[in-house]
Amino acid sequence: MRVLIVDDEPLARDELAYLLGKCEGVSAIAQADSIEEALGAMLEDPVDLIFLDIHLTNESGLSLAGKINKLKKPPMIIFATAYDDYAVKAFELNATDYVLKPFEMERIQQAVKKAYGQYRKQQVGEVEVPKQKDIGLQVLPIQMDERIYMLQVPEIIAIGVENGETTIYTKNMTYIIHEPLSALEKKIDGHPFLRVHRAFLINLKEIKEIQPWFNHTFQLTMSNGLKIPVSRSYMKEFKEKVGI
To answer: 212: cis peptide before it, omega within 30°?
Structure first.
């Protein structure tokens, strides 16, 4: 893999370059200290993986990540930063990994191994993480109990709102957060999810049973036994999606 390090600190770049030089799968290492220099380097010689700092001089690595994701074939991104505050935002930008400074050899090797696995699959035409605008997020980062959980989006059964709390139902656990349902709906747009009620968003693949309900509506039984109503205002779209 051809790797580009983007960091405004020369010592941090050199240290990371040294560690990357010991990692299997890394064939070339380039460096840049700004977004402008990074974009220039990518135009001259395309790269497969970028180690990107978030706090650059008068710039944000998140801004560069947003531009990279608009490319036809964007390189993978691993954020390498001293701050853990941006993990959720990083994974929303389809980051491959998030590594904290000071760097440790074992952690860098782990991150490179993960990226190299994706790189090899891409080489044989099996893209592991399709573009976000095509299918939505594959992994949804959520904050709960002062932790960040990485939820596999296809494993989400339903999302509901009650008394100001948003509950995410998955095949193995239930998560209670305070993020609006509308915001989550935008994040996972593109997957087989459908709004069936002002308070519920469901995974169409996890419907187990559809039962006629009051006022010509339906009640759904999901794969985990959860009962969810389909309100009248969402009936037409629901019927079209499920083919009834």
So the answer is: no
